[in-house]
């Protein structure tokens, strides 16, 4: 993108100019707000200037500045208004809590994310792919299962958590079971659509080469299904974490992120709660990022990946 | 599904097309119910065997099977037990009764709808801002996308507790969670939708000397509607899940989520399954409603395919 013209720059600045009087008015009514307002205006003007002039690295820097500004405003507001940490702890306190409770956070991470979410996600994904391949040969089963699968994928499945906790006990096995059920249907629906994604011409080509079913599945239809499969895997990476954490609210051993969140809330140790949330957020982003990276490696031939590189 | 199903002019072929679609679903549903019965018998068998051994009874296999399906607190209730629990919860109680699923369902539904309305409105407004302002796009969008990968739902109960400690209870905290969850799908879908007009269409608007406002109302907004409806469907389901999870923390006494939790405390499995089925029905109705509005709107605009 080229730098914008002077006229366009003025238009980009418009919202800021319109908002400024109101913000200043607010600061006049509540004087302690003044540094917050000033910080916001400076950071936002900086961002508008950077994106408009299209400086190098603007694409990376603007979100970072935006995020940092939000954090600073959070910290400042907590201090200026002396918000009790029971309601909203400032980021610095959360950071300290992360450092102090590193050992607890790690055991919780292993218990919930690695044992509960990841195991369940892998088992659910494998089961869904196998089922998709199995029902792919029968159009009747496809027509029967797909509407039901679509329906189930939209349901509040976390609700089965109490039942599965009753069946499989308090440890991570029950969490993994909840995750299996939660991720199964979205992956199934995507995989079935993926296996149907080859066109007649390609399948005819396979037939011309006298390829048996398994060969044509392995060499043509599985690769063609990969973009769809990864779409399902990416959607469910977040679902897996949610399932594992929420299931712990219904009963868990004395470790795990859901357990820690609910007990820390009970003790009003909000910095620890936010530390767990931070860990969950980082784990979720990493999980998604790793799947997206795998997708890039596996489906390098797909137009959506090739366009990104260009 | 087949080409026959898409030929509305020929009535008989439409009929077969319809049966083509309904029959497999029914068969699969029947198979699921069958498996459910078998599982119920298998999972409840141990309990019945224990009871019989304790009472020194010798059960015939027919009596044994019958007993596995009529337990008060079965490990897995049989489909007909859940159905009767659901029926009793919906029609067997007064609507104001604490045992009525309509009462609990309404509490959940009202918070869901309030949150859904706030969340999708905020999503649309922010999407309009993002499409028209480059700085906003580059600052907010990466965080909006990243926030999709964060398990927000898992912290929902905490939000409730924090609000409760500040003295705010009832509909509002649940609606905030529902709004938060329905906000992002709408934002992302709407930004994508508002950007669908290609350079050719935008150039055409330009050659007609259309103002920004005209481009928005006559080109961008109409072409974003299919995307908007698709994300509204996702958003309403997410809002319902958010509300239900928001009802989980102890202290909430009403709503389908509270019903789930109290059922799990007291081992009332039939109550859990009935609440679960009620929630599923509610989700299905909400999604279907939006689907109907979508169909009517798009047909009215001549966009339906």
Automatic annotation (TrEMBL), chain B:
InterPro entries with a match to the protein in the record: MetI-like, MetI-like_sf
TM stretches of this protein: 21-39, 106-131, 143-165, 171-191, 227-250, 270-293
Keyword Zinc on entry: no
Domain of life: Bacteria
Membrane topology, record value: Multi-pass membrane protein
Main location: membrane
Entry keyword set: Cell membrane, Membrane, Transmembrane, Transmembrane helix, Transport
Family that this chain belongs to: Belongs to the binding-protein-dependent transport system permease family.
Protein name per UniProt: ABC transporter permease
Originating species: Paracoccus onchidii
């Amino acid at each position: 993108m080229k730098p914008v013209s002077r006229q366009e720059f003025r238009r980009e600045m418009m919202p800021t100019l319109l908002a400024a009087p109101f913000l200043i008015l607010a600061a006049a009514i509540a004087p302690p707000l003044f540094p917050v307002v000033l910080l916001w205006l400076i950071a936002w003007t900086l961002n508008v200037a950077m994106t408009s002039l299209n400086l190098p690295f603007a694409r990376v820097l603007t979100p970072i500045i935006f995020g940092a500004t939000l954090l600073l405003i959070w910290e400042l507001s907590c201090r200026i208004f002396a918000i009790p940490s029971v309601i909203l702890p400032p980021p610095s306190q959360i950071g300290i809590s992360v450092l102090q409770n590193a050992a607890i956070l790690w055991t919780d991470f292993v218990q919930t994310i690695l044992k509960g979410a990841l195991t369940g996600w892998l088992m659910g994904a494998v089961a869904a792919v196998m089922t998709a391949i199995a029902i792919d040969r029968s159009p009747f089963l496809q027509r029967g299962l797909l509407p039901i699968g679509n329906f189930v994928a939209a349901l509040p499945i976390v609700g089965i958590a109490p039942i599965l906790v009753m069946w499989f006990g308090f440890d991570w096995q029950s969490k993994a079971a909840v995750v299996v059920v939660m991720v199964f249907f979205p992956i199934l629906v995507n995989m079935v659509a993926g296996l149907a994604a080859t066109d007649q011409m390609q399948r005819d080509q396979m037939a011309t080469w006298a390829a048996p079913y398994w060969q044509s599945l392995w060499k043509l239809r599985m690769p063609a299904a990969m973009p769809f499969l990864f779409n399902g895997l990416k959607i469910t990476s977040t679902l897996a974490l949610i399932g594992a954490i929420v299931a712990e609210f219904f009963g868990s051993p004395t470790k795990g992120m859901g357990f820690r969140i609910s007990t820390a809330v009970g003790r009003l140790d909000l910095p620890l709660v936010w530390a767990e949330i931070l860990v969950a957020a980082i784990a979720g982003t990493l999980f998604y990022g790793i799947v997206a990276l795998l997708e890039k490696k596996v489906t390098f031939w797909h137009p959506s990946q090739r366009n990104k590189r260009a | 599904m087949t080409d026959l199903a898409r030929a509305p002019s020929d009535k008989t072929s439409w009929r077969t097309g319809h049966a083509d679609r309904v029959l497999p679903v029914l068969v699969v549903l029947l198979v699921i119910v069958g498996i459910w019965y078998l599982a119920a018998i298998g999972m409840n068998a141990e309990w019945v065997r224990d009871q019989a051994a304790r009472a020194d009874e010798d059960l015939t296999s027919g009596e044994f099977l019958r007993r596995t399906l009529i337990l008060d607190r079965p490990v897995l209730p049989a489909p007909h037990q859940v159905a009767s629990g659901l029926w009793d919860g919906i029609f067997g109680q007064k609507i104001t009764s604490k045992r009525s699923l309509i009462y609990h369902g309404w509490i959940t539904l009202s918070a869901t709808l309030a949150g859904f309305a706030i969340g999708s409105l905020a999503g649309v407004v922010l999407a309009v801002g993002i499409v028209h302002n480059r700085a906003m796009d580059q600052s907010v969008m990466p965080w909006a996308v990243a926030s999709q990968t964060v398990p927000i739902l898992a912290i929902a109960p905490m939000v409730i507790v924090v609000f409760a400690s500040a003295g705010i209870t009832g509909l509002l905290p649940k609606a905030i969670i529902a709004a938060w969850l329905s906000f992002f799908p709408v934002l992302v879908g709407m930004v994508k939708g508002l950007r669908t007009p290609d350079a050719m269409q935008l150039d055409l608007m330009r050659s007609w000397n259309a103002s920004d406002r005209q481009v928005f109302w006559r080109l961008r907004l109409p072409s974003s509607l299919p995307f908007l409806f698709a994300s509204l469907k996702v958003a309403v389901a997410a809002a319902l899940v958010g509300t239900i999870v928001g009802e989980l923390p102890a202290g909430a006494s009403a709503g389908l989520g509270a019903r789930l939790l109290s059922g799990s405390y007291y081992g009332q499995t039939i109550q859990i399954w009935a609440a679960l089925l009620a929630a599923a029905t509610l989700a299905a109705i909400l999604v279907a409603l939006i689907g109907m509005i979508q169909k009517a709107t798009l047909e009215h605009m001549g966009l339906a395919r």
